[in-house]
Amino acid sequence: MSLTEEIKEFALDLGYSRVGITTAESFSRHIEEVKSRGVMYDFFVKNPGNPLNGSEVKQLRPSAKSIISMAWDYSQKSFPRSLIGKIGRIYQARCYNVPPDRINGMRYQLMVNFLKQRGCQIGHGIFIPERWAAARAGITTFGRNNFAYVEGIGSFIVLSSIVIDEELEYDEPTMEIGCPKGCTACMKACPTQAIYEPNKLNPRRCIAFNTLFAQDGNSEFITSHIPADIRDKMGTNVYGCDVCQEVCPRNQARLKAKLLEDEFLIKKSQDFSLAKMLNMTDEYMIKMRPLMYSYIKEKKYFQRNAAIAIGNLGNRDYLSDLEIAMNDPEALVREYAAWAIGKIGGRLAKQVLENKYAQETADSVKKEIKTALFEA
């Protein structure tokens, strides 16, 4: 058995759904595409960590010869209905940016260990453009919603790759759009019109981007501010968004399939509460962390997202929770709680806002209360 065959067999034995191998040559088209998007992607292109450099693998690691691309199917079990529309499926599945002490993090580490045992030198810390690598390795095609798709599974996959210094047998690329001809279901369904052309996404309008990346300190080009017109369309999404995948014809077979329940998720769904997230304790954050440890580290951003979700629900039963949040030590939390109170509206909402305005010291919060009073 050749090394290539050994690698593929071991990856499949670990549970990966597909594994393919491509060269370590430049992803020049990816670089061109990202740079052509201008200010929409300045947070990425101008990031001090230079993530775009990972598209030029050989510049970072001249000895690199091959990229092993693997796809994990995270939709093998069902997702609780109560979490759909709140937490993206990929995060519920605990398989993205996973710490090595979790099973989905250990799987990748086992693959790395196997390659080292076979004498392969690993290129660590290279930010590979995963969707491009997977298509070039022949395991996925592109979707107009900017996701990668595996035949027979759909887009509910997580991709990972490993750079090695060994020359292997390479697979035929499948760098093509696999969507039905003329289908624009994802573009029509996107609440914020973030998919402005087929295969083109404005991340700053993407609900998932705003729930996950809108944090101070992530980049000089990103802040914690979420524009009001985006908030209005975020629904109850507090961590990710699956709308463009849910409407896709290529995902319907899996979405309609009768799947086994995930007992861990059932338990977590019983613990989940927008009110508890809004006024999140450290204990509650630890409890929910396995579903949401990919991007957000500070609880104030979870609280902000919960406030937006509650405001969009428009349920007056949450006013007492929002009133408590108006006393939070974080101005960001108070600011978005004020927005939510104004969104809910009514006499009691105005009364809460007026009372809090008299006590508030932060200009950003006072400004939001004024706007909320006008809306309420």
Automatic annotation (TrEMBL):
Q: What is its EC number?
A: 1.17.99.6
- The answer, when asked if Cytoplasm is one of the entry's keywords, is no
Domain named 4Fe-4S ferredoxin-type: which ranges? Answer: 166-200
Membrane-crossing residues?
Answer: none
User: From which domain of life does this come?
Assistant: Bacteria
Q: What class of enzyme is it?
A: oxidoreductase
Q: Which SUPFAM superfamilies match?
A: 4Fe-4S ferredoxins, ARM repeat
Q: What InterPro entries would the database entry show?
A: 4Fe4S_Fe-S-bd, ARM-like, ARM-type_fold, QueG
Q: Name one GO molecular function term.
A: epoxyqueuosine reductase activity
UniProtKB keywords: 4Fe-4S, Iron, Iron-sulfur, Metal-binding, Oxidoreductase
Q: What is this protein called?
A: Epoxyqueuosine reductase
Question: Which species is listed as the source?
Answer: Pectinatus haikarae
The beginning of the lineage is: Bacteria, Bacillati, Bacillota, Negativicutes, Selenomonadales
